[in-house]
Design brief:
- It holds the Pfam family HTH_26.
- This is HTH cro/C1-type domain-containing protein.
- GO terms for molecular function: DNA binding.
- The protein has about 70 residues and is mainly alpha-helical.
- The protein has one domain: Orthogonal Bundle (434 Repressor (Amino-terminal Domain)).
- The protein is about 55% helix and about 10% strand.
- It is built from four helices and two strands.
- It has a two-stranded antiparallel ribbon.
- The chain is globular.
- The protein starts with a strand and ends with a strand.
């Protein structure tokens, strides 16, 4: 099972937001931002902070990809 943040990347592009902007707005660390960039799991708290920035649900920023 893997996690993919391509939906978040699309939201960031649509909102003309760079990684540093997201870090500042969501008050997340560079470590968390790097994990997101590498499609690695982050804490639920980080995901909730990002959701607050975009006024969306967790499913709008990431998705779980099941192994076949």
């Amino acid at each position: 099972m893997k996690i993919c943040y391509s939906k978040l990347q699309k939201l960031m592009i649509d909102n003309q937001m760079k990684r540093q902007d997201l870090m500042r707005a969501a008050e997340i660390t560079s470590y968390a931002a790097t994990k997101i960039n590498k499609n690695e799991p982050v804490s639920l708290e980080v995901l909730m902070r990002i959701c607050q920035v975009f006024h969306c649900d967790i499913g709008d920023i990431c998705e779980v990809i099941l192994d076949e």
